[in-house]
Amino acid sequence: MDLSAVPPTFFIASGVLTITTLNLINRRAVHACQSLWGVIAANYATALALSVAMALVWGVSSISPLTLGLGFVTGFLYIGGMFLGMTMIGRRGASIAVSASQLSVLIPVSMSVALYGENLKWSQFLGVTLALVSLPLLAAKGGKDGGTPDRGTLALLAAMLLVQGFAQLSSKVLVASGLEAERSAFFLAVFTSATLVTVPVALRHRREVGAADFGYGAVVGVCNIGGNLSILLALVALPGAVVFPLVSSGGLLLVTTLAALIFRERVGRVNALGMALTLLAVVLINV
Predict the structure, then answer these.
(1) Domain segments of the chain: what residues?
(2) Are the C-beta atoms of residues 216 and 25 closer than 8 Å to each other?
(3) How far apart are the first and last CA of the chain?
(4) How many whole angstroms separate alpha carbon 24 and alpha carbon 97?
(5) pLDDT, tens digit, for every residue of 172-198?
(6) What are phi and psi of 149, to 5 degrees?
(7) What three-state secondary structure class fits 62?
(8) How many other CB atoms sit within 10 Å of the CB of residue 144?
(9) Which neighbouring-strand residues pair with 140?
(10) What is the C-alpha separation between 89 and 157, in angstroms, rounded?
C-alpha cells in the first residue's frame, strides 16, 4: 500500500487522536469494570490479531533470537505499564496519568547516554532536569493539602516511569542492534507474550469480567496499534524531533481538555504546574 501521497501531518493528527482515545477509554473502563484484566487481555489479543494481519500484508523478514527475546520481555513490560497506568488513572485521573506516562522518556534517554555513549544537548539536559522537578508536583495532593507530596502516588508514578521507560528502551535496543528491519517480528513477539500471559489471568477473574470489558479492551487494542503505526508512518517523512513533541504535547493537551469536559476532572494548581513542566520537558528532550 503506497501512502507516500498522504501528508505527514495526517499521521501526526491520527497519532494524537488514537492516544487520546486510548486514554479516555481506559479512564471509562477503570470506573466501569470490576476487573482490569478483561480490558488488558482484550487489548493485547486485539493488538496481536492486527499485528498478524499487518505481517501477512507487509511480510516478515528473517527473525533473530535477539528480536524474539527482546519482544517477549517487552511484552511483560507492556503488561506492567498498562496495569500501572490504569491504576494511576483510577487514583488521580487521566490527565495526571498521561503526564506521568510522558515522563517515561527519561529512561531511554538516560540509558542511551549510559549504554551507547550518546551526548545530551543543553536543551535535553534542561528537559531532563524539568522532568525530575515535575515528578513531586504531579504527585502532590489536591484540595486543602494541595502541594503536599502524596507518597503513594509518587511511588506509583516512579514505577510507571521505570516500567514504561524500559518498554520504550527496547525499540532503541532493536535499532542500535541493526535489527530495525525485523520490527514486524518484534511486535508479533511483544503482543504474543502479552496475550499469552494476560488471557489466562483474565480467565481466572472471569466472574468479575463482563462483555463490556472486552469491548473496551478491543478499542484500546485498535488504538494501541493505530498510534504506533501513525508515529511510524510520520517518521518516514519527518524527523523524530518534530514527530514526538507534537504527538506527546497534542495528546496531553487533548486528553486533559476532554477529561475535564467529559469526566469533570479537575487538577490543582500544583498539579497543573507539574503538567506544564512535563510538557516542556518532553519537548526539550526530543529536540
Answers:
(1) 8-286
(2) yes
(3) 31
(4) 11
(5) 787 778 877 777 888 889 999 999 999
(6) -65, 135
(7) coil
(8) 6
(9) 149
(10) 11
CB 216 within 8 A of CB 28: yes
pLDDT tens-digit map of 44-87: 999 999 888 877 877 766 788 898 999 999 999 999 999 999 99
* Rounded-to-integer distance, Cα 248 and Cα 281, Å: 11
CA dist 127 and 121 (Å) reads: 10
Instruction: Return the percent helix, strand and coil in the chain, to nearest 5.
Output: 85, 0, 15
Q: Is the pLDDT of residue 239 over 80?
A: no
| Element (DSSP H or E) covering residue 267 | none
Cell digits for 255?
Answer: 486528553
A 10 A CB-CB count for 177 gives 13
Q: How far apart are CA 30 and CA 21, in angstroms?
A: 14
Q: Is 149 helix (H, G, I), strand (E, B) or coil?
A: strand
- Which residue is associated with the grid cell 522537578? 133
Grid coordinates of 224: 494501541
The pTM score is: 0.84
d(CA 239, CA 236): 8
Q: In the numeric block, which cell numbers belong to residue 193?
A: 507474550
Which residues contact residue 84 at a Cβ distance below 8 angstroms, ignoring those fewer than 6 apart?
156, 159, 160, 163, 164
- Cα dihedral 179→185→188→193 (10° resolution): -60
Rounded Cα distance, 137 and 147, in Å: 7
Torsion angles phi and psi, residue 256, rounded to 5 = -60, -45
DSSP code of residue 265: -
- Using CA atoms, how far apart are residues 84 and 116, in angstroms rounded to an integer? 29
How far, in Å, CA of 194 to CA of 202, rounded? 12
